[in-house]
Amino acid sequence: MPKATDEDKDRFREYVAGVAGAEVKPMFGQLGAFVNGNMFAGLFGSDIGLKLAADDLESLASAGGGPFGPEERPMGGFLSLPTAYTSEQAAPWVEKAAAYVGTFPPKAKKK
User: Fold this and answer.
1) Phi-psi bin for 36: left (phi > 0), alpha (psi -120 to 50), beta?
2) N or C end of the chain: smaller count of CB under 10 Å?
3) Is the confidence at residue 35, as pLDDT, over 90?
4) How far apart are CA 81 and CA 107, in angstroms?
5) What is the pLDDT of residues 40-57, one digit of tens each?
6) Using a CB cutoff of 8 Å and minimum separation of 24, what contacts does 69-75 make?
């Protein structure tokens, strides 16, 4: 599994910082960003992946987005942002992902 560097983690936190109510948590040595307990963004090595609606997945794929997660088993419903994206280019996609996942029912907290 690829390791995220401190710079990767800082970039991820920067990208999701503007999302109201987002919670960043460690996941398997990586990071995930959650709204109401549901993950809308994740970090896998240096890749930042977003969970998007089907139309937005198609648009991001057309803009250069690629699979997110392990090569042999990428995460369904997620795409990685193009690696050359700046935080300004990523911001609308991050907002779309948070808004989309924000429509999901809140996850119950484990006891």
Assistant:
1) left
2) C
3) yes
4) 26
5) 999 999 999 999 999 999
6) 69/42, 69/44, 70/1, 70/44, 75/42, 75/49
